[in-house]
Amino acid sequence: MTRNQRTNAVLRFAKTMLVGAALVVITNGSLLAAQFPTPADCPTSNKDRITAYKFLAELTYHRVKSGQYKTAAIAAKNLDFTWDQTNGCLQALGVSHEEALNIDGLMDAFLGAAKGDGNAAPDLTVVSGAYKKYIDELDRLK
User: Fold this and answer.
1) Would you kindly state where each structural domain of the chain is located, as residue ranges?
2) What's the pTM?
């Protein structure tokens, strides 16, 4: 599989996740129902959730590295949206509230660095450092 094919597959996956989250909102009739899943709504392992977060973070990071800032911004929004819709599953699977807040802070730092200041390209050194801290914390939860 070429790099472009892999990227297209990643984007299709991200779009599928967004459509799925939208269906959850529509099906449950409220945004709150989608934001705070019950244990029955969650996968049986943290690995399933963490894989999705890592996948979208990797896509964002590689797009920033390659100078594709618009695509990076879309992937970043997808990661942020996916986190907001599903992070309750981490807590349902035994991740403490403090750990979830820590991961959220690391993700926000990474996404903020990836977006830059709007006037210039993001600082790749800062983006790389924030990405590594975020991924390392996700890996620790597996």
Assistant:
1) 3-141
2) 0.68
